[in-house]
Amino acid sequence: MIFKLDDTKKAEKIFGDWQETSIWSCLQNVMGEIYVDDLNEPQSAMAILADFCFFAGKPNDELVMYKPESCSNDFIIMVPRDDEWAKRIASNYGEKAKEVTRYAIKKEANVFDKDKLEEIVHSLQSGYALKLIDEDIYNWCMQNNWSRDFVAQYKEYAMYQKFGLGVVAVEEKTKEPVSGASSYTSYREGIEIEIDTKEEYRRQGLAYACGAKLILECMKRNLYPSWDAQNKWSVALAEKLGYHYDHEYAAYEIYGY
Description:
elongated, single chain, five-stranded mixed β-sheet, alpha+beta
């Protein structure tokens, strides 16, 4: 049997010092859910939030195969704590599981150069303006596929206003966002950054400027802007903004979840 854990403190030791903000979001009951093999003395745990789930503790096939009723996704990215969990994911999902490499970025306090970030913001080319995501932009992002992940994990604007934070680059000619950096998810001490640019507007430095502006806004609010990279392009962008690469890790993209 698999159980949803309401008293999330019981799972803290299982996840230990794993530096993943999605896990922190779940443990803090800000966003996401935790599922375990036993409500009183759990040995195995899964933290699930948005397109990601993380497995820790004693490897458990039933937990690996469990899909919560609240999860409507047909796609999810599973992250194992160790090789044994990885084997369970690969063996249980077979051809549905595609192993991928992701890149962890160090979480370091006081690492950002405020003056450099402001220079990046001011380097934004003419014809564009940076704007914080307000209710109108939130609604616009929800209605457009390329930008939906900027706000999609917040069920309504009131939730985004309370926990989220984001910046978009608006093209002055069309008055529409064409690039942005926003909170994919949130935890009490910070956010996990989602960054993207509409395809035809890429390679113009727009994401670079949006990222710098978002980090500055986080600094104003004493929030940490966590960054996890899907690819080496994302690593390079993070390093240009002041982050430092940590390590690569294995994850599994599950299709037909």
